[in-house]
Design brief:
Rossmann fold; 6-stranded parallel β-sheet; 9 helices
Length: 214
């Protein structure tokens, strides 16, 4: 079982959006995926409730129970678990990073977000977990994106090759308990999520599609 933690010191970076989209993308690809929601706001869990019985499974929990939750997921045969954390580089984020094979740090290309990201970078340096910055909610075709890449690289972090733009589909789909790939399968948002999943699968050593999905 592979585990991915989504963490960021700052709120509003799109952690939950990326968490549920990656778990859903893995499900679409034929993997048994789940989300563990450690955020006190339980946004991912609420999204999961809106889906009723549709996968991926979403479970809310506390940081001190994370090992038990992960052990249970492994016993149930999950291929991928995505851990959604709260907007703090706190105990929950640290435990998630320690348990993860890889950490994704979402970041908007804005001054305050770029300044706040240093704390999360320092967190994953302490846990020695592989981590990537995913530039999220970016303007379409703007030099701001490259400038943000340069800032993050200057902090010693690695930027993922896939950028997620600010698109209406991401807003509308979550309201109805969907993802961009379900809400608008042929849209740009869906295309970006598919690319992000393909990249992540490669980093985790997983095929883009599970054999059972072939």
């Amino acid at each position: 079982m592979k585990t991915v933690a989504i963490a960021s010191q700052k709120g509003g970076t799109g952690k939950t959006t990326i968490a549920v989209h990656l778990a859903a993308a893995a499900t679409i690809a034929g993997f048994h995926a789940a989300v563990i929601d450690l955020d006190p706001q339980v946004s991912a869990a609420s999204w999961g409730d809106d889906r009723v019985s549709e996968p991926p499974e979403v479970v809310s929990g506390q940081a001190n129970r994370l090992p038990v939750l992960l052990e249970g997921a492994a016993k149930q045969g999950f291929d991928l678990v995505v851990i959604d954390t709260g907007p703090n580089a706190d105990t929950a984020a640290r435990r998630a990073a320690e348990a993860a094979d890889l950490v994704i740090i979402p970041c908007r290309p804005a001054t305050f977000d770029l300044k706040a990201i240093k704390t999360t970078i320092e967190l994953v340096e302490i846990t020695r977990t592989r981590a990537f910055i995913v530039l999220n909610a970016t303007p379409v075709r703007s030099r701001v994106v490259q400038e943000a890449r340069d800032v993050v690289t200057g902090l010693g972090a690695v930027v993922a090759p896939v950028t997620i733009a600010q698109r209406a589909a991401f807003v509308h789909c979550l309201v109805s308990g969907q993802t961009a790939q379900e809400f608008e399968p042929d849209g740009k948002a869906a295309e970006e999520i598919a690319a992000l999943w393909e990249w992540l699968a490669g980093e985790l050593g997983l095929p883009v599609k599970a054999k059972k999905a072939a």
